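Subject: RGM_C domain-containing protein

B.,
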Amino acid sequence: MKVKHYDTLTPGNNEPYCQALVTYLRCLNETTLACRGNLQFYTNLFAMRKQFREFGCASYKQREEQNRSVLITCPPGRMRICTLFGDPHLIRFDGTMQSCTEEGARSLMDNRHFLIQVTNSNVRNQAHTTSVNKITLLIRNHNCTPSLRYEAASDEETLPISFVDGVRGHETDDHRKTVEVLNYQIIRHDDHVEIAMHHIQSSVHIRRRGPYLSVSVVVPINLQGTWTSAESLCTTGCRNRSIIEIDKVLAASNRYAKCYARKLHVPIKLATERCKTVNATDHFFDACVFDLMLTGDEYLVAMARDVQSDQRALLPDLWHPSGRQNISVYNHLVNSTFSNCLPSSSNIRSWYLASFILLVAFLLFWDQH
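Prediction pasted inline below.
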């Protein structure tokens, strides 16, 4: 093994060489996903692991890790938040909001320390109607914490208050908590769990309202980038083909409903008045009106309020709302049109009638010949 500063090391069961192996292996392990399929990478990885076992380096690794667990601290202005909630709406790290209708699993965030994966499903069997029904957090192995996995699903009675293996957190040798699951159900009588990752000054907040889940992640700005080549919602956003132009929907709700065969469960005027009563503003107001108008579900009104409160409480230095509680800013879009519309029921009936007539004509023609 040739590594800068380690050229004079002697391979074998000795602390300097084993510590070099530990450092090298940590680097390789943290790069595994990015180097998937690279034969040279895995050749090096397996060779280093073999040396680690043969030289009995486990004892040196344990001794080294006892002395390494530096908790990151960041000033508030260097923190960012990303949230996915509702039917569903995404607020990215840059503060922009997108509404999208993606089904299946997507990475919400992926960096060297943890991965958040969300699964969206169609909850009403209607076009453009999806919501988060599963959230998986994988905390990667680190010198401050072991690998931990947390899962939440909308079909469970309550949010889990521990990781999947039953543990509630992890401490260093000097009893500093690096990771812990905080349960706010007892304190606030609210289905709300926080997974605090103190070693990287990050946190994941998961809420549940009825059959709906929401997730917010708070990280230092230097950790918000994507670790692998895969696209993550918090950084790259929704796929273009799945984006719902919510400003156009709020300006031309009847056209949108007709285009996608959606029912307007609550008139838009009543929806705006209801969302005012929970003090939703700006992006959260738009999301609240959109969700209530198209579903009539009060759980989604409460969720918009909850997520807005979380953003204000978690990063008050970045909370600068305009206080907007109307959709008149979208009046210029009142004549908007929508693409890829679904056939209306009348068009479907006409198609079946025309097909039936053609079939009868064909049978009559065949019978005469």
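The CA atoms of residues 184 and 190 lie 6 Å apart.

T.
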